[in-house]
Amino acid sequence: MGERSLQKFGGLSAILEALIYISAFVVYGGVLVYPDTEASAQEHLNFLADNQLILSLLNFTSYVLFGIVLVVLVLALHHRFKKENPILSKMAFVFGYVWVGLVIASGMIANIGLSSVIGMGESHPIKAIQVFSSINIVTEGLGGGNEIIGGLWVLLVSVLSLRGKQIPKGISILGLLVAIAGILTVYPLDIFKEIFGLGQIVWFLAIGIIMLRRPSVD
After folding, report:
1. I need a labelling partner for 5 at 20 to 30 A (CA). Which of 75, 82, 140, 150 fits?
2. Which tens digit of pLDDT belongs to each residue from 67-84?
């Protein structure tokens, strides 16, 4: 694969990442109606069983597919910046691929856990919900709610783009703000996760368009 082709595939990957984010926000926030906190264990299990297919597809697209597509974008951005700043570009490359692994692992754990919990719920509903809660803690800690690694990758990419001429300054500054929000998800406040997710939609779209319009690396 040539450099121009890699950059174009990277641009398409960035746009696809944004679309994955948008679809997740729409389905999680506007389509699925979760049981309230006062619902019984059986009601929670009925919700999981009734929506197993859509939840499994969401876990796959939001985590596994997201991570697979991210591989192409991380590689393309590394090649885009490596001549200008090889050391910092390698650091970004490493954090990017660590994030890839964490995100894909989160999705696989979530899907296997969902299937196991639904099966367990037929005979032990309360225990099944307790297990489901534990699985959520693991997936959130790996990559669902803790965005520190992703934030560090965006931070390094933004610093690289500010120091070079490959990405417009406005997009680089947006990336810095998005990165800070991602790093701040170390604190258990949903606002930081929401800012990171919404900000990444815009950042991914902007990065993707630039890479498609300017596939040549100077």
Report:
1. 150
2. 999 999 999 999 999 988
Rounded CA separation 143/100 (Å): 9
Task: State the CB neighbour count (10 A cutoff) for residue 144.
Answer: 21
Tokens standing for residue 83: 């001549």
CA distance 112 to 98: 21
With 0-12 / 13-18 / 19 or more C-beta atoms within 10 angstroms meaning exposed / middle / buried, residue 167 is: buried
C-alpha dist (Å) from residue 138 to 5, 98, 144 = 37, 16, 9
Tell me the pLDDT tens digit for each residue of 175-189: 999 999 999 988 877
User: Is 2 a residue whose pLDDT tops 70?
Assistant: yes
Q: How far, in Å, CA of 212 to CA of 204, rounded?
A: 12
Model pTM score: 0.91
Which two three-digit tokens encode residue 22? 């948008």
- The DSSP secondary structure of 167-196, one letter per residue, reads S-HHHHHHHHHHHHHHHGGGSS-HHHHHHH
Q: What one-letter code names the amino acid at 43?
A: E
Q: 25 vs 19, 72, 134, 161, 207, CA distance in Å?
A: 10, 23, 23, 28, 20
Domain positions in the chain: 3-213
